[in-house]
Amino acid sequence: MLATLTSIDYGILAFFLVAMVGLGFYFSSEQRTTQDFFLGGRSFSWFPLGMSLLATLISALSYTGLPGQSYEYGLRCLILPLSVWLALPIMIGVVLPIFRGLELYSLYEYLELRFDSRTRLAGSLIFVVWRMLWLGGVIYAPCKVLVIASGTDIPEWVLISLLGAVTTFYTFLGGMKAVVWTDVIQGLAMLGGVMVVILGVWWKTEGGHERVTEVASGLGRLQPASFTLDWGSAWYLWGALPHWFLVNLSFFAADQLSAQRFLSAKSVDVARTSYLANCIVLTFLMPGLIYVGLCMLAFYQDHPQEMQPNWVASVDNKTREIVKDKQGRLLLDPKHHPEEEITVETVDQLVKEGRILKPNTREPYTKSDELVDRDAGKVRVDKLFIRRPPNERAMSEVVIRKGAAEEMLPRFIADHLPWGAAGLMMAALLAACMAAIAAGLNSICTLLVIDFHRRYGIGRVWLASKLGKTPESLTPSDELKLAQPLTLAVGVGATLFAIGIAQVHDVFEMMIAIANTFGAPLLAVFLLGMFTRRCTAAGALLGLVTGSLLTVGITILSLLQKRGFVAAEVWPFHAIWTVTFGVLLTLFVGYGASFLLGKPKSRTQLRGLVWGVGHLGVLAADEEIPILGDIDPDAPGRWK
User: Fold this and answer.
1) CATH architecture, domain 7-303+419-516+601-606
2) DSSP letter string over 215-231?
3) What pLDDT was estimated at residue 510?
């Protein structure tokens, strides 16, 4: 495949990467304590925090995935921005006053204050495992998108190494300030990228916006919601709305990745304003990405010859032989992606084996000359696709395989955006990836230092020996000597992990699916803590363990079902119900078990920690409950 980006595009990308590292150097001189490194000295105003939340939420996967979902389901995807606003009353009225008022470093410090140290430890461990798995995936997965968008044959491991190294380096140098301010640039790049694609489609499509609307309407994509209850569908209202509401609430209220921004705010009011700003910008960005999906729909339905062969071809998946070229290099592994490499180089062998089927008869092609335009050096896509006949409700539509819609945006960038514009869009894709990686690194290292080193003394003897001090004389400034190299170590480990899982597709998919199941039980435990007085520490811990086992079990079952090892009748629910079921079971077990296990805390002990009990975020003045903060140099390991 020939590169489609120009030297100007590559120059834009290089400038973007250098600018990110430059910001890391700029803020490196301001890193004096762990509060500076992990929380930016709690000095942020609402604007950078709001943009940082936006950039962290919109990863590279959702930046291309949401247009792909919109291509298939249209305006039903507007459930996503709606769900962000549904979480607003809980966030503004309860969650943010508690978290920021307590001046926490780690979100899970709240669980120790509300319940006990065991619940805090369990929550922290779940988060670290959850986000370490996720971090490897979020480094790897966007690189496939970037390869498609760049139009080059750059090996995935090169891109993985580049993204991991640059993001780890600027996070190591500048800490939270570098993370947040690079997020601001990255968030603006994402917003600009949406406009670039929309204008590009209007430029390439006769009729512009009117044609996009006409095609979307004609293909039934402008119906905003379906009220039918379908347990097996992802975008029916009764399943999608509770799922996305809980996912958003989990992201903001139970996930150190995002909540660390709120903990870095100057005040509670600043944290509230940053959340509101994030909601407002998402209200424009998410519908913009949804509209991009409709633009892809209109463009490729009007220009089906521009589709990739693997998006539309019917392939005989029963053949299990590996297709290789004359040099023995792997061209097609049908075990993993049977239709991934239908190209001019592979089509002769595929036709010879009878693997490419005629779209109408489902009989195999017998001559490759029917499928290849030798002069243009392209596969004739018009010989491969099926066009669904029109009916009373919808016009004719070219049928694509599942998952193809998510590849259309990067492919459009490579094939149809002019010089400069393609580079800007590539920078937006890089931005979405790097924002998520940096947030993951910073939050994981925060918990390793605060919840394990500071709370339990793990690594204290090593750090004291390295600095030539006694463990009792260590200060918060000394902890920075641990936090920065730890960031490097986690970044390097996650990058190597991403390179490793890039070679094992099935394991990667299972790993990501399981990693995405832990947010539900964590959210439920926080809800039990903030909205119930009766829930005990033992009940909360039992609920957390039970809910985690359920969500992991459902995820494994769904993956086995997807691969045909389990019949569809055994588990008729779509994967989106995992979150809803996980939250409900954790709430039920945690609250119910509290009547049998443990003793509820008194009203005085709950003051400031539970909605309706005192001023949120302000602990009872006459209780000897530890207020979390920096380590007292005179009493290492104890709360100040």
Assistant:
1) Up-down Bundle (1.20)
2) HHHHTT----------T
3) 62
Name the more confident of 532 and 383: 532
Burial status of residue 103 (CB atoms within 10 A of its CB: 0-12, 13-18, 19 or more): middle
Question: How many CA atoms lie within 13 Å of 568's alpha carbon, on the beta-carbon side?
Answer: 4
pLDDT of residue 288: 94
What's CA 391's distance to the chain center, in Å?
Answer: 38
Q: Which residues, other chains included, contact 276 with Cβ-Cβ below 8 Å and sequence gap of 6+? A: 50, 88, 92
Span(s) in the chain for CATH 1.20.1730.10: 7-303+419-516+601-606
Residue 4's pLDDT band (cuts 50, 70, 90): low
403-416 pLDDT, tens digit each? 788 888 888 888 88
Burial class (CB in 10 A: 0-12, 13-18, 19+), 533: middle
Q: Phi/psi at 578 (nearest 5 deg)?
A: -60, -45
Distance CA 226, CA 229 (A): 8
Contact present, 392 and 27 (Cβ < 8 Å): no
CA–CA dist 609, 594 (Å, integer): 18
Instruction: Give the CB-side neighbour count of residue 102, counting CA atoms within 13 A.
Output: 29
Helix (H) or strand (E) holding 483: helix 476-501
Q: What is the pTM of this model?
A: 0.86
